[in-house]
Write a structure and sequence with these properties.
The chain is of the alpha+beta class. Helices cover 18% and strands 35% of the residues. The strands form 3 sheets. Strands 1, 2, 3, 4, 5 and 6 form a 6-stranded mixed sheet that branches. Strands 10, 11, 12, 13, 14 and 15 form a 6-stranded mixed sheet that branches. Strands 7-8-9 form a 3-stranded antiparallel sheet, with no helix packed on it. It is globular, with a radius of gyration of 22 Å. The structure holds zinc ion.
Amino acid sequence: MDIKVSEKIPKDAYWFLFHNDELLVKEGEGNTTIPLTCDIKLLVSQPADVQSIGIFHEHECFIATISNDNLLSGFSFKKVRPLYGYLEDKYFWVACRAFHIINWMKTSKFCGCCGSSMTILSHEIAMKCSNCGHLVYPRISPAIIVAVIKENQILLARSKRFPPNRYSVIAGFVEPGETVEECVKRELREEVGIEVEQINYFGSQPWSFPDSLMIAFTAKALTHEITIDNNEIVAADWFTPHNLPDLPDKPSIGRQLIDWFTEKYKHTSIT
Ligand SMILES: [Zn+2]
């Protein structure tokens, strides 16, 4: 995503308008799209807390809140995450950025130092305390996610938060003072009792639900016996490409890791 922050306000801007946690989209002729300025002018309610979040494909993008009163036909509010596959990919990821920033603004109205009200800055995405000058930027929480491989098998685990029979790769938040590699080792040790080596970077993905940056790795299992923690993880096992359980949806990077494993090992024999 190539977004450049600008103070210029063009007329053909995209508007990411939220009511609670839902995004206003325009639906018609089998398409789901982000409203433009000309669409916004048709709305009865007017946007509040308007903020530019940059320029995308030569269109300025604004976020704002709006009431859900008297919506015109063709407009509706939708949760952002399920819009994947409905919105064009490139707009989906801008919608994620919009969702991340609007939630951060909502939860950063008051200064953490003195309790005074915060003001959004115009030249960068940051908020400043009107009293003591304390500056805050959108919170981004780094988390690791790792595909552990043993011969032609992948380690998948069930979180207690998952739907029935859903498994995925192990993930967890990076702690203060920790490298991402140390985090990979700690999460695997804590949650499934597995030691690993050859930790290799796979890719990263912003995950704005609410504010994560997922940093993905592959790793080779040094130990094979699984001991689940029974706290976060309620089941875990080794799976071949031929006996995979229910998996997380695209476009999560967890699913990309599992798809990478399946492609790499699909021609190996079943063990
Ligand atoms: Zn303050």
